[in-house]
Write a structure and sequence with these properties.
Elements (H helix, E strand, L loop, with lengths): L1 H8 L5 H13 L21 H15 L2 H15 L29 H18 L5 H15 L20 H7 L7 H9 L5 H8 L6 E3 L17 H10 L8 E3 L11 H7 L6 H8 L1 H12 L1 H15 L34 H6 L2
Antiparallel strand pairs: 1-2
The structure holds protoporphyrin IX containing FE and 2-acetamido-2-deoxy-beta-D-glucopyranose (9 copies).
Catalytic activity: 2 a phenolic donor + H2O2 = 2 a phenolic radical donor + 2 H2O
Family: Belongs to the peroxidase family. Ascorbate peroxidase subfamily. Belongs to the peroxidase family. Classical plant (class III) peroxidase subfamily.
Keywords: Calcium, Disulfide bond, Glycoprotein, Heme, Hydrogen peroxide, Iron, Metal-binding, Oxidoreductase, Peroxidase, Secreted, Signal
Amino acid sequence: MAMTFLRASCLPTLFLILLSCNMRASEAQTPAPAPGLSYTFYRTTCPQLESIVRTQLQTVFNSDIGQAAGLLRLHFHDCFVQGCDGSVLLDGSASGPSEKDAPPNLSLRAQAFVIIENLRRLVHNACNRTVSCSDLTALAARDAVFLSGGPNYSIPLGRRDGTTFATRNATLANLPPPTANTTTILNSLSTKGFTPTDVVALSGGHTIGIAHCTSFTPRLFPTRDPTMDQTFFNNLRLTCPTNVTDNTTFMDIRSPNVFDNRYYVDLMNRQGLFTSDQDLYTDSRTRGIVTNYAINQTLFFRDFVNAMIKMGQLSVLTGTQGQIRTNCSRVNSNNLFILPGMENNEDEKLASY
Ligand code: HEM
Ligand SMILES: *[C@@H]1O[C@H](CO)[C@@H](O)[C@H](O)[C@H]1NC(C)=O
Ligand SMILES: *[C@@H]1O[C@H](CO)[C@@H](O)[C@H](O)[C@H]1NC(C)=O
Ligand SMILES: *[C@@H]1O[C@H](CO)[C@@H](O)[C@H](O)[C@H]1NC(C)=O
Ligand SMILES: *[C@@H]1O[C@H](CO)[C@@H](O)[C@H](O)[C@H]1NC(C)=O
Ligand SMILES: *[C@@H]1O[C@H](CO)[C@@H](O)[C@H](O)[C@H]1NC(C)=O
Ligand SMILES: *[C@@H]1O[C@H](CO)[C@@H](O)[C@H](O)[C@H]1NC(C)=O
Ligand SMILES: *[C@@H]1O[C@H](CO)[C@@H](O)[C@H](O)[C@H]1NC(C)=O
Ligand SMILES: *[C@@H]1O[C@H](CO)[C@@H](O)[C@H](O)[C@H]1NC(C)=O
Ligand SMILES: *[C@@H]1O[C@H](CO)[C@@H](O)[C@H](O)[C@H]1NC(C)=O
């Protein structure tokens, strides 16, 4: 705890502490846009893009703020499996099972897909087919964070949509289960270039949204996971009376619909829902980061934004790679009927085939 406070305030008492502060500072740099992405990508082709998305999502969240969590998670699943290429949006087809159908879709909200397709229609009506479904998914996640009370930030755009499904195996291999411990999570995410700081910050996405009992029943049955607070356990057993129920519960009991740092306060009180959450506080490698975020929301927001920008650039398709889908849930067909003006140039046409 003392060490944690020293690190958080960066008192230059010891060389080692100074060093760790410097490392923190370098980790805090906003990641540079990946080649082919930029902060001004749609400046001429769709200047209204960001305001259309934000206005529409504000309306959606006014009637159901829970959809914000669904959209944030959708972007995470898209990016972790085969890169942020919108493949998570594809409906199953003869070409193979889509990510949506693989078991660890971990109950993505069906409505999230409808919201993205509605955004696509609105944006394409205003700007023609210039904006990809993967960019819309990234923007929706960004706005889900801000409109739930989180930081307002810009993200690089210019992603293109993939034309191939992610296999069931790739989906299973790339999304760690909630039963994973910190060792497993750190190892898994380090293969994608994430540091322990990134991992703890990204896990803060669990400050909004819900989970099904089945995602944490091993911590309730047959007996209480000793790392879980007794009162928290007693309440969860009321919501999840057996190991086979469809019930859901909020992930952050302190402020379930607000994007804030209370998730980390939950962890410090042994009220984290999943093993993958709670073990971040048990494990000595990540415990100090959890504490730092619990006491400093500004720090959490800064690190979360950086980690999200990093996540949002995993294996992106750019330039003439991939395509811009006319329907987010399916790949453009070869002999697609193209409305006049929908294709602006030959490159675009070639890239869509
Ligand atoms: C580190 C590994 C992660 C694991 C093991 C994990 C696991 C899970 C699980 C099991 C659920 C509940 C599914 C259900 O029972 O319905 C969930 C929900 C959620 N996750 Fe994660 N997750 C991880 C990382 C992330 C990241 C990086 C984000 C975003 C930054 C995120 C955002 C969310 C959100 C917002 C929900 C709530 C969804 C809703 O209410 O519909 N998760 N996660
Ligand atoms: C996720 O998978 C479950 C069963 O594995 C299925 O019932 C659900 O409809 C799927 N969700 C989506 C959005 O496809
Ligand atoms: C959010 O940030 C954008 C630019 O980064 C700015 O134009 C906008 O005014 C900000 N919105 C709010 C509500 O702070
Ligand atoms: C998928 O993974 C399972 C188990 O790991 C393996 O038996 C199977 O051959 C894999 N399938 C493909 C298509 O790679
Ligand atoms: C973490 O989980 C892995 C895989 O289940 C296991 O081999 C390892 O012993 C666990 N580590 C700790 C510290 O519990
Ligand atoms: C679902 O949870 C509620 C309390 O939140 C509980 O009363 C109910 O029995 C649970 N239903 C099932 C089927 O487990
Ligand atoms: C639920 O518990 C019963 C009895 O303990 C066990 O036989 C069963 O395999 C469990 N089911 C799941 C899905 O964990
Ligand atoms: C919280 O973190 C921010 C960002 O690193 C830092 O500027 C600020 O000084 C910290 N606040 C406290 C009270 O340590
Ligand atoms: C988009 O594609 C899906 C799946 O192929 C289809 O069900 C839906 O009707 C299509 N939407 C539009 C507007 O064409
Ligand atoms: C969209 O395409 C139509 C038909 O070619 C064209 O008239 C219109 O100017 C285009 N709109 C924009 C915003 O580029």
